[in-house]
Amino acid sequence: MNPRVKARIEAEIQRKLSDIIATELRDPVLKETLPDIVGVELSANGQRATVYVFAGDEALREAVLSALARDAGFLRTELAHRMDLRRVPTLRFAWEDPLKRWPL
């Protein structure tokens, strides 16, 4: 996949997922914590996307990741409706602390 196309798709997935999580999910854990999408990494063939999230508190890590895993099918379906892609990638969620990656 062309690196420019891959970067564009990753950025678009990140924007769309942030919007869907903020406006359409009804999961009480996600409504309460409102996790940030820190980044998206698309596989070389475009069939899998690792979505890096952060919710501020390490204690919420397992609850947020399990809630996102439960809602992965809904999120993928919503992405399919909002994006013009032949195949929407399968979503996998991982915890990423932006403060550890880019210290102040």
SSE topology:
Elements: H1 3-23, H2 28-33, E1 36-42, E2 48-54, H3 61-70, H4 72-82, E3 90-95, H5 98-101
Parallel strand pairs: 2-3
Antiparallel strand pairs: 1-2
Keywords:
104 residues, 3 strands, GMP Synthetase, Chain A, domain 3, 5 helices, alpha+beta, three-stranded mixed beta sheet
In brief:
This protein is an alpha+beta fold and 104 residues long.
- Strands, count: 3
Low-confidence stretches: none
Based on secondary structure, the structural category is alpha+beta
* Shape assignment: globular
Put simply, the count of helices is 5
N-to-C CA distance: 34 Å
Quickly name the level 1 CATH class. Alpha Beta
**Helix coverage percent of residues?**
40-55%
Instruction: Label the CATH architecture.
Output: 2-Layer Sandwich
Structural domain tally:
1
Integer average pLDDT: 92
- CATH superfamily descriptor: K homology (KH) domain
Largest sheet: 3 strands, mixed
Strand portion: 15-25%
List the strand order in the largest sheet.
1-2-3
Helices and strands, in order, run as: HHEEHHEH
* CATH domain topology: GMP Synthetase, Chain A, domain 3
Radius of gyration: 13 Å
